[in-house]
Specification:
Blueprint: H1 9-17, H2 21-30, H3 32-41, H4 49-66, H5 75-99, H6 112-120, H7 122-143, H8 146-156, H9 161-168, H10 172-194
Helix pairs in contact: 1-2, 2-4, 4-5, 7-10, 8-10, 9-10
Length: 195
């Protein structure tokens, strides 16, 4: 009978790669101090010790599947790096969730009175203007030639005509002409929008 605790990392890795779950658990137990040290400096709301152990087990499994004893550095180092990256990913995901706006979605035909209130609300009108402006800006950018678009970007980054001409390998007169075309296209688009 095999006593997993007495096996070396490489022997346990061999068994893990052959889908032996006891060998995987033995490695996870052996490297549990790495997880504990990592959790002393990182915290995620709502994660229990069991959640962390499960994440650590998944990371260990992935590391073992990619492990090559001849080419790979020590298992402990690979595991620590992979686990650190996983913890950082989870923290990043948690912070991203906080930035997602919590908007109430309502089917417009569910409550006609509420829909009428929403559509006459001044905030709704502002949103409608914003959406229309955004669509107009997309149309504007799509109406520009590649050269005009590059000139617009340079203009927005406050580059001088000389810098822009040097960057785009053209004359300052061509840059000035391009700025004029960009301006006229924008004025035309805004004129159509207000009409």
């Amino acid at each position: 009978m095999i006593t997993y605790g007495e096996l070396t990392d490489n022997e346990l890795i061999f068994f893990c790669q052959a889908k032996d779950s006891l060998a995987l658990q033995t490695l996870c137990d052996r490297y549990e101090p790495v997880l504990r040290r990592l959790l002393q400096t990182h915290f995620l709301v709502g994660y229990t010790w069991d959640d962390w152990q499960q994440e650590a087990r998944i990371v260990m499994y992935r590391v073992i599947q990619q492990f090559d004893g001849k080419k790979s550095p020590a298992l402990g180092w690979l595991y620590k790096v992979a686990l650190t990256h996983r913890v950082i990913d989870l923290i990043r995901r948690e912070h991203a969730q906080k930035r997602i706006p919590r908007l109430e979605t309502i089917p417009l035909d569910a409550n006609p009175a509420r829909t009428a209130d929403l559509l006459t609300d001044p905030e709704w009108a502002e949103l409608e203007k914003y959406v229309g402006l955004r669509e107009s800006l997309v149309d504007y950018v799509q109406s520009l030639s590649r050269f005009e678009f590059k000139i617009l970007l340079a203009y927005l980054h406050r580059q001088t005509r000389r810098e822009t001409a040097r960057q785009l390998d053209c004359t300052e007169a061509q840059v000035l002409s391009g700025i004029g075309r960009c301006r006229r296209k924008l004025e035309t688009l805004l004129g159509q929008r207000s009409a």
